[in-house]
Amino acid sequence: MIKMEKATVSAKIMDDKRSQSKPMAGSGAFNFLGEVKQEFKKISWTDKDELKVYTKVVVAFTFIFGMSVLFVDVIIQQALAGLNGFI
């Protein structure tokens, strides 16, 4: 009984796949671009003032992080140079 049901289900799936119309060659790219355009309309974009603030914050934190790495690097160099004098 179970084998019969599986065969019937798989036959239905095959019929469904055959009944679906295949898109014309080349139309897939146009469909894709149309869908991309629709999705872009759904996006809530950041306004210019917020974008400027966020950009300044990112630049500031990047600068601070870079200076921190430089500071740690100089400390490690000095420590290794001091150890080299003992050896």
Automatic annotation (TrEMBL):
The chain crosses the membrane at residues 57-80. GO terms for biological process: intracellular protein transport; protein secretion; protein targeting. It comes from the Bacteria. The keyword Membrane applies. GO terms for cellular component: membrane. It is found in: Membrane. Residues 1-24 are annotated as: Disordered. GO terms for molecular function: protein transmembrane transporter activity. InterPro entries: SecE_bac, SecE_sf, Translocase_SecE/Sec61-g. Keywords: Membrane, Protein transport, Translocation, Transmembrane, Transmembrane helix, Transport. Pfam families: SecE. HAMAP family: SecE (MF_00422). This is Putative preprotein translocase SecE. The lineage of its organism: Bacteria, Pseudomonadati, Chlamydiota, Chlamydiia, Parachlamydiales.
